[in-house]
Amino acid sequence: MSEHPEAPVAPVGAFEPPYYVAVFSTVRTADQDGYRETDARMEELVKGVPGFLGMDHAQTPGGLGITVGYFRDADALAAWRRDAEHRAAQRRGREQWYERYTLHVAKVERSHAFVRPEG
């Protein structure tokens, strides 16, 4: 998972349910050659998927990376799963970049957010 230094320090907002999430948790290998470029390309591609709502990223100091992708419906998530460049990146990830990973896909039935008022 990339460091995403340009990402805002705020979670993606709540959406009107139902919608879907894909939670991708990873531990990466030492060999990260080409990872940053591919990660940036995947972020660019997924933003073009109709029904893509947003993405959150987190990285622990110990090396656990978590990416959560939000999708309006199962069709949007399936379109992302079928994308040819995404599938090629998945293969390379298994061959080179990931020591291990877990993917969880869930339908969100409840969602809310909180933002502390200024002042």
Automatic annotation (TrEMBL):
Gene3D superfamilies linked: 3.30.70.100
Domain spans labelled ABM: 18-92
InterPro entries: ABM_dom, Dimeric_a/b-barrel, Jasmonate_Hydroxylase-like
Pfam families in the cross-refs: ABM (PF03992)
rRNA-binding found in the keyword field: no
UniProt-recorded Gene Ontology molecular function terms: monooxygenase activity
UniProt keyword annotation of Oxidoreductase present: yes
Keywords for this protein: Monooxygenase, Oxidoreductase
PANTHER family tied to this protein: ABM DOMAIN-CONTAINING PROTEIN (PTHR37811:SF2), BLL5343 PROTEIN (PTHR37811)
Stated name of the protein: Antibiotic biosynthesis monooxygenase
Organism from which the protein derives: Streptomyces griseoaurantiacus
